[in-house]
Amino acid sequence: MQLTTPQAANILIVDDNLNNLKVLVGILSDSPYKIRRAVTGDIALQCITAAPPDLIMLDIILPDFSGYEICAKLKQDPETASIPIIFMSALSSNADKVKAFTVGGADYITKPFESTEVKARIRNQLQLRAAQAQVKLLTAELEKMRTVQISQSGNN
């Protein structure tokens, strides 16, 4: 997991509807985020493999794979498992939302988009990711210090 500040985050938006992509890019146009786009699941997976994003905004209904399938696949791979995924869909039933969380989604936004909600949910997930990366880094440092202490006490 790379340690990226939430302000410099790389976000991948996956939606086959070009109008939705345009709306989301417009909502985020005043943000410092680097925005990438994909219109199919296959393109999204290629983008993620080439350069894993800090956050993925993923439509559920895509022409080749469902967002659920993509999310499940990413969560099974240790290289991509920690990337937060915000599902976005016009599907608003509780069953759809529960399925999104069951396959590993971090959040769920219903369409049509409300800009302040989108920004708040993205900011929240990026802050959580940065905090998790910091905890992981500090844990590794503590473990290293513990190992040094044990080896030094064994030499005395």
UniProtKB/TrEMBL annotation:
Which InterPro entries does the protein's record reference? Answer: Bact_response_regulator, CheY-like_superfamily, Sig_transdc_resp-reg_receiver
All copies of the Response regulatory domain together span: 10-126
An example GO biological process term is: phosphorelay signal transduction system
Q: Which Pfam family, any one, appears in the UniProt record?
A: Response_reg
Keyword entries, A-Z: Phosphoprotein
Where on the chain is 4-aspartylphosphate found, per UniProt? D59
Name of the protein in its database record: Response regulator
User: Which species does this protein come from?
Assistant: Acaryochloris marina (strain MBIC 11017)
